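Help needed: design a sequence for this.
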C-alpha cells in the first residue's frame, strides 16, 4: 500500500509472504508537468497599415506551450507552436481594415498572459501630403527624453503628421483655390498644373508653384511658344530656382521663321500684357514640386509633430493671479518658433496674377 507521495515519487511497501524473510520497498517515479504563466515580450510586426493583406504575427516570450492560442482582443487566432519562446498566429485581412489598437494575449495550459500586454497598432495609411514618418517622430521623441512609445501611439502620431502636412500647405499657400487640401503635396512629389496668367509685359513670367521641373506647353494669346534649347535660342527657359519662365530671343531662325515672325509681331519677346479686353492671356502647363521632401521641411515636420504630441496634455498656462477669492488664469496661444516660421516663409507660394 502507498505510504508517502512526493511531487516526483511514490513509495510503497509490500510485505513479503510468510515464507519470505524480507520486505521489498518499490519506488515508482512519476512524471511531473508544471505550468507557468506565459509572458509576451514582443510582437513582430508590431503594427500594420489599415487595408493591408493577411499576415503572420510572431510572438516572442517565454512559457509558451504546445497548446498555445493567441487572442486578438477576445478573438482566438489560428496559432502555430514554434518553441517555448515563440509562436505564430495567422491574422486575416478583415481584422486590419480600420485604424486602431488591439490588445494581444496568449493562453496556454490554463494560464493567460498578464493583462496590459502588448498592443498591436493598425495604422492609418500615410498620405501623399505627409512630410515625415511615424518612425522619425518616435525616434525624435525617444532621443529627447520622451517615455517609451508603443504601437498604440502610432495612429495618434500619424494623424498629427497628416494634419501638419495640410497645415504646411495652407501656410505656404499651396492649398486649392477653394481652400481644400490637394491629395498630393508638391513637397512630397512633383504635381502637374494648368494655369492662366496676365502677361507681365516683360521677358519673365513668374509661376504660382515652384520649383518648376518641366513645361508641357506655354501659350501667349493662343499661340504656342517653343522651348528654347539654351540662351541665344528662341523660346522659353526655366529660370534658375524654377520660379519663373524666361523668354529668349533667337539668333538663328532657320525652319522656325514663321514662328519667329509671329513672335516678333505679337510679343516682341515679352510675355505680352493682355489689356482690359484680353485678361489672363498666358497659359502655362507645367510640373512643379520636389522629388523628395526637402531636409529642412522634413525636420520642421518632425519637430512640430513631436512637440505637439508632447504637449497634448499641457494646458500652456501663462499666468495666474488670485485676489479676494477670485482667480484669473491666462493661457498662451501656442505659435511656431521663429526658426520654423522662417522655413515656412522660404517655401511660401508666390502671389501671381
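Sure. Designed sequence:
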Amino acid at each position: 500500500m502507498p505510504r508517502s507521495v512526493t511531487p516526483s515519487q511514490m513509495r510503497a511497501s509490500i510485505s513479503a509472504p510468510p515464507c519470505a524473510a524480507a520486505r521489498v520497498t518499490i519506488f515508482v517515479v512519476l512524471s511531473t508537468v508544471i505550468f507557468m504563466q506565459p509572458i509576451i515580450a514582443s510582437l513582430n510586426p508590431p503594427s500594420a497599415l489599415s487595408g493591408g493583406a493577411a499576415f503572420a504575427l510572431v510572438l516572442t516570450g517565454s512559457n509558451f506551450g504546445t497548446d498555445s492560442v493567441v487572442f486578438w482582443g477576445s478573438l482566438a487566432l489560428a496559432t502555430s507552436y514554434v518553441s517555448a519562446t515563440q509562436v505564430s498566429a495567422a491574422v486575416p485581412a478583415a481584422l486590419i481594415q480600420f485604424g486602431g489598437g488591439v490588445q494581444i494575449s496568449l493562453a496556454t495550459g490554463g494560464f493567460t498572459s498578464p493583462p496590459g500586454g502588448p498592443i498591436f497598432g493598425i495604422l492609418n495609411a500615410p498620405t501623399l501630403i505627409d512630410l515625415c514618418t511615424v518612425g522619425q517622430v518616435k525616434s525624435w521623441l525617444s532621443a529627447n527624453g520622451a517615455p517609451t512609445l508603443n504601437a498604440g501611439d502610432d495612429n495618434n502620431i500619424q494623424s498629427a503628421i497628416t494634419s501638419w502636412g495640410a497645415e504646411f500647405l495652407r501656410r505656404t499657400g499651396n492649398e486649392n483655390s477653394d481652400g481644400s487640401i490637394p491629395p498630393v503635396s508638391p513637397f512630397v512629389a512633383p504635381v502637374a498644373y494648368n494655369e492662366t496668367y496676365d502677361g507681365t509685359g516683360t521677358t519673365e513670367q513668374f509661376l504660382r508653384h515652384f520649383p518648376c521641373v518641366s513645361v508641357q506647353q506655354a501659350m501667349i494669346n493662343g499661340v504656342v511658344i517653343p522651348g528654347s534649347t539654351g540662351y541665344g535660342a528662341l523660346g522659353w527657359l526655366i529660370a534658375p530656382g524654377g520660379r519663373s519662365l524666361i523668354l529668349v530671343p533667337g539668333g538663328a531662325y532657320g525652319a522656325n521663321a514663321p514662328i519667329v515672325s509671329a513672335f516678333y509681331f505679337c510679343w516682341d519677346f515679352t510675355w505680352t500684357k493682355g489689356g482690359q479686353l484680353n485678361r489672363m492671356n498666358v497659359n502655362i502647363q507645367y510640373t512643379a514640386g520636389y522629388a523628395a521632401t526637402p531636409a529642412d521641411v522634413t525636420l520642421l515636420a518632425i519637430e512640430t509633430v513631436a512637440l505637439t504630441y508632447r504637449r497634448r496634455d499641457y494646458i500652456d498656462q501663462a499666468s495666474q493671479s488670485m485676489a479676494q477669492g477670485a482667480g484669473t488664469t491666462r493661457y498662451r496661444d501656442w505659435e511656431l518658433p521663429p526658426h520654423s516660421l522662417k522655413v515656412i516663409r522660404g517655401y511660401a507660394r508666390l502671389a501671381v496674377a
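DSSP finds five helices and 22 strands in the chain.
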